[in-house]
Specification:
By secondary structure, the chain is of the alpha/beta class. The protein has helices spanning 2-9, 15-25, 28-32, 36-40, 47-54, 58-70, 85-88, 120-135, 148-158, 180-189, 206-216, 232-241, 259-266, 275-279, 284-292, 306-313, 323-330, 334-346; strands spanning 74-77, 96-101, 109-113, 139-142, 163-166, 190-194, 220-223, 245-248, 270-271, 321-322, 350-352, 357-360. The protein is 45% helix and 13% strand.
């Protein structure tokens, strides 16, 4: 493991450089046993890179492994059986994964990613899709970012599903910092993963690199909400390059946060209106397995009372409504309304937003 960690820690090497070195020399150990001239003979490796490799102190990697062990972080290199098989098959897989939680070869797994500045509509859709995917045994993968990513992780946790967060920093450097408790909960019900050495800060250039892991660990990638310049579109591009299915949720033509996802659909991404649209685009064996667990179109839905139906019909899928507004629209007293809202939340028909506002999920 020491040589794997060492090669992963050499500064200035991008995934493509590490992959080229492995192909050229066969193993990380042979890379470090080679001289600068040999290393420089690899087309992608420049002299300054060869110098850093040849002069890298392996004791640094030993200390890294000890530090990870003390923090309860598991390491998995590319040749180990515990390394996720799906990720191993992408063109430039990470040499080493730092994992807080449990490593599994998740089947099926779907990535839900999108805007950090998510609209109520985007958050609503994410909650809705995640809950239904969780109900049929799908692992939810995302990037722990604000907005859509965080909602996907939280919804998965609430549904009792396994969820995986991929970081653009060291696994012991949670970004954004307000998601520390979320990351801790994810590690107990799934895994928090990074390829970056411990202590690596969340530098801007790290996030496009980590995006290939989000798509690489998933059988399909769903873009829920994205502007034309969204980083989620990088994930979509990488997913396509890796042979993964790319899907997108349609949004308003007047909303900038949906322009990128709408363009994906225009360019051929599958349109998502429900969990079934996603499952239909998974590999046939996985899709067939999921459908075998679903008895009929309405499986998992609870019957609604007439009172609950009135409350649901008074809510919007796109704009949160205050309880007072819902009470007037549904013609209900406060006590009746609040009781119905609690019941509907448990049945995942509505979600409470800030300031006693509710939004419809189904």
């Amino acid at each position: 493991m020491i040589y794997w960690v060492a090669l992963n820690m050499v500064e200035g090497l991008k995934p493509i450089h590490k992959t080229s070195l492995l192909k050229a020399f066969g193993s990380p150990e042979k890379v470090f046993r080679s001289g600068e001239m040999e290393l420089s003979s690899v087309p992608e490796i420049k002299p300054d890179m060869a110098y850093r490799i040849a002069h890298f102190d392996l004791k640094t990697a030993e200390l890294e492994c000890r530090h990870a062990s003390k923090l309860g972080i598991e390491l998995a290199n590319l040749e180990e059986s515990k390394y996720p098989a799906l990720l191993k098959n992408i063109p430039d897989p990470p040499l080493v994964l730092y994992v807080k939680g449990t490593i599994l070869s998740d089947e099926p797994a779907v990535a839900l990613v999108g805007s950090r500045k998510a609209t109520p509509y985007g958050l609503n859709v994410t909650q809705f899709l995640t809950h239904d995917l969780a109900a049929v045994g799908v692992t939810i993968v995302s990037g722990l970012a604000r907005g859509i990513d965080a909602r996907a992780h939280n919804a998965a946790l609430q549904s009792g599903a396994r969820t995986i967060a991929i970081l653009g920093s060291g696994v012991n450097v949670i970004y954004p910092s307000e998601h520390k408790s979320l990351a801790e909960n994810i590690s107990k019900q799934g895994a928090v993963i990074s390829e970056f050495p411990l202590g690596t800060p969340p530098n801007r250039e790290n996030f496009p690199i980590r995006n290939r892991i989000i798509s690489g660990l998933s059988h399909a990638v769903v873009i829920v909400e994205a502007s034309r310049k969204s980083g989620s579109l990088i994930t979509a591009r990488m997913a396509a390059e890796q042979g993964r299915e790319v899907l997108a949720v349609p949004g308003s033509i007047f909303n900038e946060s949906s322009q990128g996802s709408n363009l994906l659909i225009k360019d051929g991404a599958a349109l998502v209106q429900s969990w079934r649209d996603i499952v239909e685009n998974l590999p046939e064996q996985l899709s067939r397995h999921i459908y075998s667990r679903v008895q009929n179109e309405g499986s998992g839905d609870s019957e609604l009372t007439e009172l609950e139906k009135a409350v649901v019909s008074s809510l919007s899928f796109e704009e949160p409504r205050h309880v007072d507004q819902v009470a007037v629209k549904a013609g209900l007293a406060a006590r009746e309304l609040l009781g119905a809202l609690v019941s509907l939340e448990l049945k995942n028909y509505v979600s409470q937003m800030h300031g006693k506002q509710y939004i419809r999920l189904k």
